[in-house]
Amino acid sequence: MKPVKFVMINPTSPFWRVQEGERPRQSRFFRFSLLPSLCVAASMPPYVESTIIDEDVRPVDFDIDADLVGITFMTHNAPRAYEIADTFRRKKGVPVIVGGYHPTFMPEEAARHADAVCIGDAEDVVPRMMRDFAEGRLQQFYRSELTCLAGLPVPDRSLIRRKDYVPADALQATRGCHQRCGFCSVAAFHQSRFRTRPVHEVVDEMRGLRKRLLFIDDNIIGDREYAKELFTALIPLRKNWYSQCDISLARDEELLGLAARSGCRGLFVGFETLSQQGLTRWKKDSNMTADYLASVAKLHDAGISICAGFVFGGDDDTPDVFERTLDFLLEANIEALQTTRMTPFPGTPLFEELDAQGRIFDKYWGHYDFNHVVFQPKHMSAETLDNGVGWVGKQFYSRRNVSRRIWKSLRYLSPAVALGGVLPLNLGYRVRKAKDGEFQRGEIFSTPSVPLQRPHPGNTMPSAERNAYAER
Fold first, then answer.
1. Could you give the count of Cα atoms lying within 13 Å of 167 in the half-sphere of its Cβ?
2. Share of the chain above pLDDT 70, in %
3. 319 and 175, same structural domain?
4. CA neighbours within 13 Å on the CB side: how many for 421?
5. Residue 57 belongs to some domain of the structure
6. d(CA 439, CA 432)
7. Are 246 and 381 in a shared domain?
8. In a domain, 86, yes or no
9. What percent of the chain is helix, strand and coil (3-state, nearest 5)?
10. Within a domain: residue 155?
11. Can you say whether the dihedral through the CA atoms of 242, 201, 71, 161 is positive or negative?
12. Which of 95, 100, 333, 338 has its CA 20 to 30 A from that of 269?
């Protein structure tokens, strides 16, 4: 078969896109290792020579020697992805294939800018796509079933410069999530199904990686028995690892103990909201019986740091939600925070619901980046939601609060984790939020003038409800 020069491009927003000769514009703690692109490259037939371009660290060279260009993107990068695709196709005569979340949810739209669209997981279909391309019969759509994770090839990490990315090697043990959260594109993409990779294959790959590891899993404890087997197998490796999971880990003492012993040092946890009604509406089942303060304390006692995810703008949120959430974050000493304006991504039940109600007023995909309000909230103005999220971020990442939580975290985290991980992440968030205008919007937010009757953050509802009571 004739060799094929395949160039994979990861587009990014204007805020973070580098130009020739520039250094990356944001902390490498926000630049992961492009594991999806590496996995696609690993699945290619031997006659394909792959090159990866990440606009966060390297500008696109439209004169690059390429037989075929592939672009993977999420919704907020769709306008840039289409610009790149159109340039290669119309001006350079190079065919383009696209894949990822947005093309999977909007294949007809994506097909207007590409010669072929990969719908769903790529590993199973890219060999066929490459064969069809080499034989001159590339099809418009390639639909994949959910990929079996057994026997997947190990990525060639030399295709990227490791120093450009978060200082931890990335790999994956599981994929998908069994929950059906209405706002979550992960659940929609993976059809709310959870898949696991054979533990021995994960361990074999880990042996050749560095001390610090990042599991790019959607919910690493989605299958409890599998997680226990995995964590037990990791203990002898003496690695430190980070991932994401739901808050129910705190309620399983055996699993939590194994996670800590196996080297878990930090987790992204989707708390989403303090509202029981909001969790019910979003079908976030794993959080409904959680006492958040007690759960955080258990994770801290195990030496695990937390990056909390909160979504603002649900139909149960009123303007006091920002103060109440900040109170919880500071009292619990959450180490890092990802705040998002609720965003109705195409392909999710939330998008269908709000679109049917006529509440989505902005369908420019570049604004679907959690940094813009694209719909009309129910109990506040779009401006209040926008500025309120900025206010939470500005308060949480103030110099005073960063200093206080790092100092407190040294009581239960190792200095290496607190100073080598949590502190750089906080400083990175400060720079990021200042650059994208988040802090500026927070400055003009007005908290409610009437004194709030705020319940204790770990006690945010009547006791009867609480006793029945966190990705995205």
1. 9
2. 94
3. yes
4. 26
5. yes
6. 10
7. yes
8. yes
9. 40, 15, 45
10. no
11. positive
12. 100
